[in-house]
Amino acid sequence: MRIIVDRDRCTGQAMCESIAADLFEVNDDGELELKASTVPDGRLGDVQEAVACCPNEALRLVP
After folding, report:
1. Exposure pattern of 17-39 as b/e (b: 16+ CB <10 Å)?
2. Domain housing 45
3. Which Pfam families match (predicted)?
4. 3-class SS at 19?
5. The whole model's pTM is what?
6. Structural domain count of the chain
7. With contact defined as beta carbons under 8 Å apart, do 26 and 12 qualify?
8. Long-range contacts: 37-42, Cβ < 8 Å, 24+?
9. What's the CATH code of the domain at 57?
10. What spatial distance separates the first Cα and last Cα of the chain, rounded to whole Å?
11. pLDDT digit string, tens, across residues 6-35
12. Best label site of 27, 35, 44, 50, fewest CB within 10 Å?
């Protein structure tokens, strides 16, 4: 599965980073950087939680 960020919706609140800091990082400019574009093996649950917790619905998963 791929992780997609809607940059128009993302406001850099870092909820995703707090759940999976090894996959998501908000840089000094407040922009989200994906450390992986696909979900690593064994991490689907964490990524699904990060997607669900995004207050702006800026994250989604696609096959």
Report:
1. bebbeebbebeeeeebeeeeeeb
2. 2-62
3. Fer4_15 (PF13459)
4. helix
5. 0.91
6. 1
7. yes
8. 37/2, 37/3, 38/1, 38/2, 38/3, 39/1, 39/2, 39/3
9. 3.30.70.20
10. 4
11. 999 999 999 999 999 999 999 999 999 999
12. 27
